[in-house]
Amino acid sequence: MRPLIAGNWKMHGLSSQLAEIEAIAASVKLRPTHADVLVCLPATLIARASSLAAGRIAIGAQNCHSEISGAFTGDISAEMLRDAGANTVILGHSERRQHHGETDAVVAKKVEAASRAGLLAIICIGETQLQRKDGKALAVCGNQIAASLPDSMSMSVNAVGYEPLWAIGSGQEPTPDEIVEMHEHIRECLVSRLGTRGRTIRILFGGSVNPDNARAILALPEVDGALVGGASLKATDFAAIIGVVPAEP
Ligand code: PGA
């Protein structure tokens, strides 16, 4: 499967940081990679970034509302993101689930919205440290997939991002065995739900991926790419992670 290296800038980035997008696009131009490269930006930067990216890298968003339009002050629809130049949207990130009360049902509605607007979706799942300690990690993530991914929308799901909450921004990583166990479990869940289509959805690992650990993580079975937060903010770091994937022949 062609890997996906996706950056998630979260609530970081002013106009001055668009130079990083230009630099990432330039590095991909210089060394075409056998990976899809995507950076999910604050909505304010999407339009300018997509013209700077010039098709060399894809530009995405980090959330959307489930409705097309309406009296939802401060919200942004999938159609608006598409119109601004995004081709993908991250949905159900743990920070949205935690700080904005997004349930699996809300995430599922947003996946439908992404599909309606012609956006690809990256659905994020992941367990807390306590859930892992209690031996519930596989069940928690399995349930999140079951409830966040509407069957009929599977064609719009570009990837599932597995991001253990305790690994995000913490520098803590699961062991390789823990990553493989979870990714294999996610694959089984996808295949049992969606049949062969479930084999084509990429499973990204996220949580403190950086230039030092990316090679080992991306080499693991059923790891089809990475969702990178902090290390995607600097073009040099993000390009180093992209550089782990072989160049396009
Ligand atoms: P991190 O964030 O790479 O900074 O841990 C990943 C994410 O939350 O998507």
From TrEMBL:
The lineage of its organism: Bacteria, Pseudomonadati, Pseudomonadota, Betaproteobacteria, Burkholderiales. GO terms for biological process: gluconeogenesis; glyceraldehyde-3-phosphate biosynthetic process; glycerol catabolic process; glycolytic process. InterPro entries: Aldolase_TIM, TIM_sf, TrioseP_Isoase_bac/euk, Triosephosphate_isomerase, Triosephosphate_isomerase_AS. CDD domains: TIM (cd00311). This is Triosephosphate isomerase. SUPFAM superfamilies: Triosephosphate isomerase (TIM). Pfam families: TIM. It is found in: Cytoplasm. The active site is at H93, E163. GO terms for cellular component: cytosol. Belongs to the triosephosphate isomerase family. Keywords: Cytoplasm, Gluconeogenesis, Glycolysis, Isomerase. Involved in the gluconeogenesis. Catalyzes stereospecifically the conversion of dihydroxyacetone phosphate (DHAP) to D-glyceraldehyde-3-phosphate (G3P). Gene3D superfamilies: Aldolase class I (3.20.20.70). Substrate binds at N8, W9, K10, G169, S208, G229, G230. It comes from the Bacteria. Homodimer. It comes from Caballeronia sordidicola (Burkholderia sordidicola). It is an enzyme of class 5 (isomerase).
